[in-house]
Amino acid sequence: MSLHRARWVVGAGVCAALHVCKLPPALPLLQTELGISLVQAGFLLSFVQLAGMSLGLLVGLMADRWGLRRSLLWGLVLLGVASVLGVWAHSVWALLGLRAVEGLGFLLVTMPAPALIRRLVPVQRMSAMLGWWGTFMPLGAMLALLLGPWWMGLVGWQGLWLTLGVLTLGVVLRLWLLLPADVGVGAGKDSRNEASNDPTSAADWWLRLSQTLTQAGPWLVAGCFAVYSCQWMAVIGFLPTIYLQAGYSTDSTALLTAVVAGSNMLGNVASGWLLGRGIAARSVLWMGFGVMGLGTIGAYSGVLGALPLEMELAGRFVSVLLFSAVGGVVPGTLYTLAVRVAPNERTISTTVGWMQQWSALGQFSGAPLVAATAAFMGGWQWTWCITAACACVGLVLAWRLGQRGQA
Questions:
Q1: Fewer beta carbons within 10 Å, N or C terminal of the chain?
Q2: Who's near 309: CB < 8 A, 6+ residues apart?
Q3: pLDDT digits over 9-62, tens only?
């Protein structure tokens, strides 16, 4: 039963990811209907990370007191309601505001999930289940990119927003019935009683904050996640636009992008398998960041330009496929490391929140940087410089984790 509940927690993450990733396949349609520029599209892609970028640590600090289950459920409620309200959004500014609300909902869902999974599953299954948790983002992206264009062809982008909102609210009901209530000190007590019976709560927050931020481990895993997410969201977010500009049909674009996004799940699951067999986490991270850097060079730099056109296109697709598939070992490994490098049991949520905050910063900055580079250079041929630089930073941070004996 505990594994069943943990799988539903992963499902909640997939639901949250659907809201983040519903935008890329809708961008060409939104650009046409609302007159959105390429840079504005980049901010639409990244604005969902505004809450995580500014509030990740705060939500991590409050999660144990507020309750992991409560945080998860309210996050899904925000996502569902914001998506339904998106049906009446008729300007880029309205969409930006609702994306910010969705970002808060996404944060409330994804931040407590690793700690909740850790409570639900036996310790010997933790690495494997956290590896599966790492698939929530690529699985949500694959479903949104594969099914989104087809569904929008029937009901429009507003219909997609409404469908996802209703689906999410249904998941809220299922999890409310399935997950055990938050119990124990700092995990869901009535806030009024806690305020009166625990006069040290403010001191406790500062203690967990100082314990987390004075250790190098949480900073290193957070930095790794930032440079990973910066690359992945920038590449996946603009793949539909790139393929359509290259002359691919809408159906082909949806299929190719979904395959690339979905392949990321292979790396996430493989990370749990590799770590469970004693492979050092730093080696897994080196493999992931190294292939991501090389993959974007192959996909965007023009190094394959001397080949015949069909071979060049195939080579570019294989490059971006390897970028996503092998790069998937990075988030799966980092979720395991976040639990490992947390100073103590009581700082796991805080550590994950800090990592989530830096992940959001990477996602927020990646898409606009890549879009601005493409707009300035008149094409996508130099965008690999940004992603490859992120990969190099990731290699250095993983080496530093290994030097400290934490990976």
A1: N
A2: none
A3: 989 999 999 998 888 788 878 888 877 777 777 777 767 777 777 777 777 777
Secondary structure letter of residue 181 according to DSSP: P
CB 295 within 8 A of CB 320: yes
Q: How far from the centroid of its chain's Cα atoms is residue 212's Cα?
A: 22
CB within 8 A of 202, min separation 6: which ones?
none
Q: Which residue from 367, 270, 275 is spatially nearest to 328, judged by alpha carbons?
A: 270
- Retrieve residue 174's tokens: 């299922």
Over residues 100-122, the pLDDT tens digits come to 899 889 888 887 888 788 788 77
Lowest mean pLDDT among 74-88, 175-189, 211-225, 317-331: 175-189
Record the pTM: 0.74
Domain boundaries, the chain: 2-175+201-401
| Size (the chain), residues | 407
Among the listed residues 399, 389, 385, the one whose alpha carbon sits nearest the alpha carbon of residue 284: 399
Residue 8 in tokens: 């539903």
d(CA 201, CA 208): 11
Q: Would you state the pLDDT for residue 50?
A: 73
CA dist., res. 255 & res. 249, Å (int): 10
Supply the CATH classification number for the domain 2-175+201-401: 1.20.1250.20
Residue from 294, 288, 290 nearest 318 by CA: 294
* CA–CA distance, 383 with 379 (Å, rounded to integer): 9
**Separation between Cα atoms, residue 229 and residue 213, nearest integer Å:** 21
In this structure, what DSSP letter does residue 334 have? H
SS3 readout for 89-127? CCCHHHHHHHHHHHHHHHHHHHCCHHHHHHHHCCHHHHH
